[in-house]
Amino acid sequence: MSWASARTFRHGVHPGDFKELTRNLPVERVAFPDVLTLPLSQHLGAPSVPVVSPGDCVRRGQLIADSGGYVSSRLHAPCSGTVRSVGPAHHASGKLVDAITIDRDRASAQKLQAMRPGDWRTQSREEIVAQVAAGGFVGLGGAAFPTHVKLTPPEGKHARFFIVNAAECEPYLNSDYRILLERTDAVIEGIKVLLKALGSEKAFVGTEDNKADAATLLRERLPPDLPVEVLVFETKYPQGAEKMLIDAVLHREVPAGRLPIDAHVVVNNVGTVAGIGNMYLRGEPLIERVVTVTGPGIRDPRNLLVPVGTSLQHVIDHCGGIHPETRQILFGGPMMGQAQRFLDVPVMKGTSGILFLTDQEVVERQEYACIKCLRCVDACPVYLNPSRLGALAKSRLYEDMLDHHIMNCMECASCSFVCPSNIPLVQRFRVAKGLLKEQAARERAREVAT
Ligand code: SF4
Ligand code: SF4
User: Fold this and answer.
1) CB neighbours (10 Å) of residue 377?
2) Structure confidence at residue 363 (pLDDT)
3) Are 200 and 169 within 8 A, CB to CB?
4) How far, in whole angstroms, is CA 126 from its chain's centroid?
């Protein structure tokens, strides 16, 4: 299949991509900050459990927190230093969460205490998955779901296909693109490792046509005997959502409430794949990541290699500061990013980008009544009726929203983007889903108590 003819998913939207700000900037390493803050909750699942105490000396790459359960992740020291504290710190979610704070050892050369993952070629599938868990890998596209869990399909299920998600459909972001271009060896190693770990017969790399040059490079570098196909799709949002990518690559629909493995597929972000390749090539656990720092509000946009735990302020300083008109800072892209209120909030494993928007982009628009144009219905990639859901949310009829499948909403903001009445649909859906989840948790707790 040629990239020009690759079919993509139905619906979706075409926001401007604004990737030119950092598209051609090679990844550069940010200087180690003096202090790093590592939240114990920077992945989906149970918080990590510290294995260090205040006053302990740690080496770069050393384990500092173990998994807090099966769906959890390990944490490693991103720099050598001394543990200052284990206690509450600001988190990108806006909450205070427990975190390990490390004072960097300024005299240290920051030599990596490397893992010894062994040779994946001679390891069993279980042994590879155990190494991925040991390295603390999570989905680097933003969701931060522990990777070892994805690599362990439930009994009776098998990932016939493995998809590398290199769509990076959020405007402004270029971290996946730069990884494809600059860490091609690690991407290819990671594909080999994960094909074996999953026992899959074939891998696909899915990207968009604004990254066609990276796809060409990858095709040229792939060994001819590796069963991998690189597919380039039309640039369209949200191409990088797992279910959309599976639809585009395999023309398979993952039904609502089901997982990719139910369609015999596992999807991993290209940064995660490169990280796992890097662990086997160089013994590095997940202690740093590529972050696109961009937007009209930052003086010197860049693609940076940032130690996990580095503060937002340190990144801003490295990029020459912010313009006075900066109005909003987001972790992630403009469609699904999280607004930040504190400059001491740390970069985490799932932080793919930091976006600085100014008064010009953050315009408060007046909301008008719904005119039933149904543009939101045409845009919704999971076939919901955002117009109807929006009306129910406005009337706070949250339980009625369940009948209209609100829990299938992936909060992609496509509906808000196209709405000519400026109705804050996705914001209302986030509130509604949060309240419905809290209510469900309360009911579960009551059931357990009785
Ligand atoms: S935010 Fe939800 S309702 Fe709106 S387009 Fe995305 S999935 Fe559909
Ligand atoms: S796009 Fe906006 S105005 Fe049009 S139907 Fe949807 S909610 Fe109503």
Assistant:
1) 17
2) 83
3) no
4) 25
Nearest atom in ligand 1 to 380's CA? 5
Q: What is the CA radius of gyration of the chain?
A: 22
**Full strand arrangement of the beta sheet holding 49-50:** 49-50, 63-66, 75-76
Residue 376 Cα to ligand 2 midpoint, Å, equals 6
Residue 105 in contact with ligand 1 by CB distance below 6 A: no
Which residue ranges of the chain lie beneath pLDDT 50? 1-5
Q: Quote the ligand 2 centre to 321 CA distance (angstroms).
A: 39
Alpha-carbon distance of 423 to 439, in angstroms, equals 25
Structural contact between residues 151 and 133, judged by C-beta atoms closer than 8 angstroms: no
The string of pLDDT tens digits covering residues 279-295 is: 999 999 999 999 999 99
**pLDDT given for residue 358 in this prediction:** 96
Residue 352 CA to ligand 1 centre (angstroms): 21
Residue nearest to atom 8 of ligand 2 (CA): 370
What's the pLDDT at 6? Answer: 65
Alpha carbon of 372 to ligand 2 centroid (Å): 5
Can you list the domains of the chain with their CATH numbers?
Answer: 3-23+119-282 (3.40.50.11540), 375-449 (no CATH)
What would the pLDDT profile of 122-175 be if each residue is shown by its tens digit? Answer: 999 999 999 999 999 999 997 899 999 999 999 999 999 999 999 999 999 999
Residues making up the chain, counted from first to last: 450
Q: How far apart are CA 271 and CA 290, in angstroms?
A: 8
Residue 403: beta bridge partners?
none
